[in-house]
Every structure is written in C-alpha cells, then in structure tokens.
Amino acid sequence: MEIRDVGVVGLGTMGAGIAEVFARAGLTVTAVEADSGALSRGMAILDGSLGRAVSRGKLTEDEYAQIVGRVRPGAALGSLAGADLVIEVVPERLAVKRQILAELDQVCRPDAIIATNTSSLSVTAIAAASARPGRVIGMHFFNPAPVMRLVEVVTTVLTEPSAGQAVTELARRLGKTPVQVTDRAGFVANALLLPYLNHAARLLETGYATRDDIDLAVTAGIGLPMGPLALLDLIGLDTSLSVLEVLDREFGGTRYTPAPLLRRLTDAGRVGRKSGAGFYEYSGAATGGDSAVFDNEDQPPPPGTVTLIDHQDRSAELASLIAAAGINVTRNPAHPSDLVIVAIGPEGGVIGPATAAGRAAESVGLHLATLSLAELVASPVTSARALAAARALIARLGLRAVRSADRPGLLVGALLYPQLRDAVAMVGDGYATSADVDTAMTLGCGYPRGPIRLLADAGVGTAVEVLRAMHAGYGDPAFAPSPLMTQYAQGGLSPVARESPAARESPAGHESPAGHETPAGR
Ligand code: CAA
Predict the structure, then answer these.
(1) Does ligand 1 lie within 6 Å of residue 231's CB atom?
(2) Residue 75 confidence (pLDDT)
(3) Secondary structure class of 315 (helix, strand, coil)
C-alpha cells in the first residue's frame, strides 16, 4: 500500500511539524483541529517554519508555495474520509486519544492506517479502542519534527505486519530512519531521555548545581547539542511530566518519579518554550544551555603559586596544565601558596585530603571532566576567597568550569553514567539492540554519539566504578550497574554490539569499537 494522502489530527507544535514533514515529502495533507482558533494557530506554526526555511535560503518561494498548497486545513474529522493514513497528535490523555480513534473508525476507509504519535502511552491500549486494531500503529516523531531524523515505529500484538511495513516505508520516504520497537513505556528514546532529564531537574531543585552549570556540564562535558534543562523547555515540561508519570507507573523507582520542581513549574504554567518560560525565559533570542560561567569582570587575578594535592593519582595532567600557564606549582602543603587544589576523580572527596593537608579552608577540588571543562568542588569549609581564586585559575588555563556538589559522580558523571547504565539495562532486557539504542539517541535526540558508544569511549570500568560509588553514596538501586554492564566490565568486553540477528538474541554479543560506526561520531 503506497501512502499518498494523509491526515494529521492536532496541530500543536508536533502536529504542525509532522504535517510539514509530510507535505515536504510530496504527500497531500489534511490538517484537522478542534476549533478554528487552534487550526489557524497550527497553520501559522507550519507557515512560520517554512517561511524561516525560505529566509535562510533552504527553500525557494516556489517550493514554499507548493508545500503550503499540499496542506488543506480541515474543520472536522469527516474531512479525512479519503486518507490512506491518519496520525493523531493530540495531548497525551488516553481517554482523548481513544475517543478520537473511535470517531476515526466512523469516517476513515476500512483499510486506512491509524497512527498515533504518543510519546509514552500504550499503543495497545489506544488500538483497543478501534474497530480495526490491526491497522493501528505508533509513529513517534521527535521535536523538532522537521529536523530530527528518527521515527519509532511501534507495533503491538494486534498490529498487522502489512501496516508495520507500510509505515516503515513511509518513514523512509519522509527522509527519516525508522526504528521498529514493541509497545513498552517510553519506547527506546524517551525511556532513556526522560529519566536523565528528570535527574537534572532534581539536581537543580536540591541545589546540587545551578541551571547554567547543569546545562553546560552536558553540552561542554558530554557534547550533547542541548543541556537537559533547555531540552525540557523544548519538549515542554507538561509533556515531560506525563511521559515520566507513565514510565513511573510501568517501571517505578527514583529515576522515573517526577521531580517535584517539574510539577510546580507545570502548575505555574511555566511549561517551556511554548509558554514563553520554563527553566529559561524566552523573550526572543534566548535559547539557554550555554553560558560563560566564570567570565565576569570582578574576577581576582590568577594565583601566583598553587599547592597541588594528589588524590588517587589524578594530578599529573593538571600539574602540567598549570605549569604551562606560567603558575608555580608546589606539592608541599607547608609551602606558602595562594590556593590549594585537590586533584580529584569523578568520585569526588575533597574534605579528607584538604583536612589532612591542614589547609581545608584554602582548598578547592578540581576534576578535569574533559580537556576543556573543569568541575570545581568546594568542601563545607572552603572559603569564598579560595573559590574565587580557583575560578581565576580556571580562566587562566583557558578552561570552562562548572561547580558541583561534592558527591559521587560530581556533575558530568552524575548526569552521564546513570543514563549509560539505563541504556545497557535496556539492551540486557532484550528490548532493543545496542545499535537501535545508539540510532535512537543520535537521530532522535541529536547525540553526537549514542550512549553505548559513549560508554565504550568512557570505559565500562570507569562507568561501573562511578555508578558503584553513586549507589553506595545514595543507597539508591537505580544507580547500581546493571548485570550486563558488570559482565562487560568483568570480561573486558566492548558494549558496542554487532547489529545482527545474533546480537538481538544475545545482547552480550560484542565486537571491537573499530567495527562500528555511529552516525555522528566525533
Ligand atoms: N522547526 C524547524 N526547524 C528547526 C527548528 C524548529 N523548531 N529548530 C531548528 N530548526 C532547524 C534550523 O532551521 C536549522 O536548519 P538548517 O540547518 O536547514 O538551516 C537546523 O534545524 C539547526 O538549527 P539551529 O542552527 O538554529 O540550531 P542548532 O544547531 O542549535 O540545532 C536543534 C537545534 C536541532 C534543536 C539541536 O539543538 C538538537 O538536536 N537538540 C536536541 C533536540 C532533541 O533532543 N529532540 C528530541 C526531544 S524528545 C522528543 O521530542 C520525543 C518526545 O516524545 C518527548
């Protein structure tokens, strides 16, 4: 069945984006909204996005006119009688979706496919409301729909194989990469993304780190295109909350229980970009996610002499960096100096070595998360003067810095490793292959490398060590390395699996990292 004529029900941000994707691929689109106000707002979103493409020279006026000409606004579901496929993109409420499916049964051709863009609800529960459950399928796009290349094609025990094939082929015609998954809460991408975003919100609300530092830790420390708080604003805090509620019901545990701050901001109507404010304000140009934290004018001059205290062999790289910047380094705590730096690992732990050196108030912990990002850690007795001197040192070294609480994982590791753990656990559960996981996160969420590749690059041994420290520090089983991850570490195995039927059957299948290419490796 070749799909040429499609309907889109619900023209919010995602619906309008999906309608644009269809129309750009040459399909005829009927876009339906509940009332004329919502319909014209949705058409304006679509028109604005295409207009931006024209002004950036990505579309000609002619192409613009043709694409717009393929989208017909429809006032009622009755206008979808001729559609080959209808996708519903209405709010994440099961009762609303089931009602729409029941109504579509009355107007659509019996062979038409009914797709749902649900982010998290059970496609099976939605399909069961239809008189043709075999033709109901999940077709899950990612925000912004015109940009992100992933479509999760979600089949249920009821789905006819021909419907799965038709939607998979359609996704390819749209220029997207389909990943086929079965009906489990959050599918692949949201089940990995949302717990990590939730954790970031919790770190903010507990004062673990500031908003800008959390986002900078992820963009500069992990290389993702957006920080988690900026991404929550893009997705919408209300949408994120409903996905988390579904994940919480299905899986349970602290990773999924929504951070109270998400609920408070949603209750306050600060749901992100679409409402003009979330974690950030959107008065026009603001995008969030990146800030020069220590560029302020009041910074003191950099220290002339630094005492470097080695904690677990972490200081060699730091010592050469500091020396190369023309700053004296001494290893002797009794020697006078302007600042004491405790070189720490991602497990943290400043107070012990700082106290042992007898200079706790002058000591600041420093961990090089990458060659360009430092994590600064104060102990409970670190003075403001020492912290300011450490910031000046960082600026002198040409690094960016984030300040973290002194807890296992610090900031970058606390955000990164639990997500890598979740990814390996998903592979270990047999829900997705490691290749599917990496495809989903690179093409759906713009990761330069998928979590499995990130884990291979960071080293499974390091990840297991940090996760064990987090588990021991918080007593939360959500941080314990998954059994498969522990096996990878014990066997010295790479987590990057070959994409083959054998890998699907045996998640422990592995090969050397050189044999695997991620779509956007760096
Ligand atoms: N609509 C249409 N196009 C858009 C757009 C939008 N809202 N935002 C950006 N673009 C386009 C731009 O026009 C530009 O196109 P060209 O290259 O053709 O000129 C391109 O995207 C890049 O945009 P920018 O240069 O302005 O910005 P950027 O390089 O910082 O990229 C981004 C912006 C694509 C959003 C990038 O930051 C990114 O990939 N972020 C991660 C987004 C993500 O994770 N999405 C998934 C969320 S989860 C989800 O959606 C599922 C769910 O169910 C909750």
Answers:
(1) yes
(2) 85
(3) coil
